[in-house]
Amino acid sequence: MSQEFIYQSIARSIEHQIKKQVYKIGDKLPSVREICREKGVSMNTALSAYYHLESKGLIASKPQRGYFVSYSHQKFPGLPETSRPVRDEDADETESLISRVFSVLGTDSHVNFSLGVPAISLLPAARINKSLTRAMRELPGNGIMYDSIQGNQKLRNQIAKGSISWDGNLAEDDLVTTPGCMGALSFSLMSITKKGDILVTESPVFFGVLQLAKSLGLQVLELPTHPETGIEIEALKQAINQTKVAACLLVSNFNNPTGSCMPDEHKQAVVDLLEHHQIPLIEDDLYGDVYFGNHRPKSCKSFDRSGNVLWCGSVSKTLVPGYRVGWIAPGRFKDKIISTKLYQSVSSTGILQEAVGNFLETGRYENHLRKLRSILYSNSIQYLKAIGNYFPEGTKVSRPTGGFLIWIQLDPRVDTALLFQEALKHKISIAPGRMFTLQNQYRNCIRLSYGMPWSERIAESLKILGDLSKQSMR
User: Fold this and answer.
1) pLDDT, tens digit, for every residue of 365-400?
2) Radius of gyration, CA atoms only, the chain
3) CB 4 within 8 A of CB 370
4) Which of 10, 30, 169, 421 is deepest in the core (most CB within 10 A)?
């Protein structure tokens, strides 16, 4: 086991004890020498474990005295309620709000809590650029020719190899490459639905899915969703019994925007239910690699035995957003997906897919992910602390166990569309909750990204947001 794994394991054990209140605020932790003796590790490894906990703000050192617990998970805000979607559609308002939020994205002068990708400083730009140079050198015609319709072979091979980590057991021929994960979702919906069909989703749900479905003339049925475990299975059963559902689209791991992760038994139940009714499941597994636990969570595709699950993924949130490299394992819908891709894009951007395939082939991707996961987990703790300290009493916050998005439920008196406008005056951008539904709901909610390196500016911006939220309640 590497030094990195050892210190993280030690830190995780201590954090678990803090979470369970074995160690309470003010309690002294074992000395560095005790950790070395008990765990059989070096002084550097023991110190790294404590530095890791310090970076999350859970412990603090006192000169000549040692390390003490400075914060407890018990002080985190409560969880948001399970959503109860209403049937009162107003899609125009959703579009208007999305346009306003996107108008300030890419502005370096703003703190963009609304941006749904990690900061570029957390991505291995130099190394991926080397992979691109290699692709240009090795591909026939230096990469300027059309690629095969199914997509770059090296990339598909690497994705198939990686699927063993979540019991996907895919072969490269099971995969079709796409222009990002949104391309995979688009090809899926175009292939298996028609205008007027009913699409079932979680609620709240990523606004890109809503806009895509609307552009295809689909009816979106938003279902109750728990902030930790995802879509309510009983609500899904009821929807299937009462309406003619054409397809179901779920973000199974670390949902955007709530951060929920469906337990394995829920995934199994949903796959079995939809298979029984012959309703295709489009699975957006864009965030599955950004987990904070010991292993990657399984996907719905892990339980698919009939090819009914169309598993969609990408490196847009973990490696290179601008390359728009994604893929889909479409199961029994493979021929339809290939036909749709042919009509929509003819071919793939082979050189960019080859570059990503090269990067994955070297093993650098997993090294990068380990560092990214560690930073994002630390950030999530810092955000929960800051929200608990600065936001109004009664604020509720999701507890993501992966990804980089957090969902906040404020007092009903707070209109987050107005809060967005006030925050802009302080050069802070947020994503109001109303963006993540076609219905008249979530007006007192916001989605924040913790994908930026933690800094005094981030902490101060969260304090300003908290103060503005309190002012909105007067």
Assistant:
1) 999 999 999 899 889 989 999 999 999 999 999 999
2) 23
3) yes
4) 10
